[in-house]
């Protein structure tokens, strides 16, 4: 049976170099050496046995991205933000010789069952809440864990890559206020204390307070996280005459609201101005193009994966990284109302 050592002797390189080539750690090997090693692998017919290697090393080289969802739908990965984040995580892991597994769970018991049946080296999770039973479960898992968009007072054994959600909401609301809007609807998925949408609501309220505008709870709308559900909000807003602008906490929600407004016989931005959050690729393709708060989802995924690799390879890793945001002005806000 051909081994890594056989390949190394034939290529006149170290076994570590051969392992780097096999595991996709191309940044650690020169292109010429990589080509030579791959040529010899093909000539000798070497086929790596990942299962056998996992048994020997106690490492599967597999990291799971777990989407913890609490809705009645089974479309956990339909969210375009999650898709972009997943792509960035997978690319970075692949470059470092790791594999990504996707899984959705709805509670802590389902996560425990998953971990009992699959030997994954680490976990990525989005949107973990400190008061949730899942948080307690994660604190007792002896594996590297990297969170995204999680506001915790104690991260324990976990790292997190977050965002300036509060500041981003202030940017959006201040932009609407600057353009003469004071009757601003706030649209989001159902808000849970300590979550991303909670922080964006607080930022929205702070901007209003600073401008001397009282927050009106009747201008707050929530729906399931889908364009169809957000469309119902848009139709409800179109039936009212006391709203001039909307801040939606996600571009997907904003797109649904805009569709609902059109269904209600009104238009953006002539009748209603609207700002989203995330700056997904299709925001500039919408009509009108969507003004939004931009976050760098690609960078967020890369940093999360870099933290994971550092933890897996017993290197030090920052515990809580906060990424900046900025406002991208397009056509969906009517200026100088």
Question: How do the helices and strands line up, and which of them pair or pack?
Answer:
Elements: H1 4-11, H2 15-22, H3 31-44, H4 50-57, E1 62-68, H5 80-95, E2 99-105, H6 108-117, E3 122-126, H7 133-139, E4 145-148, E5 158-163, H8 165-178, E6 184-188, H9 196-210, E7 220-222, H10 227-238, E8 245-248, H11 251-263, E9 273-278, E10 291-294, H12 297-312, E11 320-323, E12 326-328
Helix pairs in contact: 1-2, 1-3, 5-12, 6-7, 8-9, 10-11
Structural summary, described in words:
The chain has 337 residues and is of the alpha/beta class. The protein has 12 helices and 12 strands.
Index terms:
single chain; 337 residues; six-stranded mixed sheet
What class do helices, strands and sheet pairing give? alpha/beta
**How many β-strand runs?**
12
Number of H- or I-type helical stretches: 12
Question: Main beta sheet, described?
Answer: 6 strands, parallel
Would you identify the regions where 5 or more consecutive residues have pLDDT less than 50?
A: none
Shape: elongated
Q: What would you report as the Rg, rounded to the nearest angstrom?
A: 24 Å
**Physical arrangement of strands within the biggest beta sheet:** 2-1-3-4-5-11
Span of the ends, CA to CA: 76 Å
The portion of residues assigned to helices is 40-55%
Percent of residues in beta strands: 15-25%
Average the pLDDT over all residues and give the rounded result: 89
User: H/E series, N to C?
Assistant: HHHHEHEHEHEEHEHEHEHEEHEE
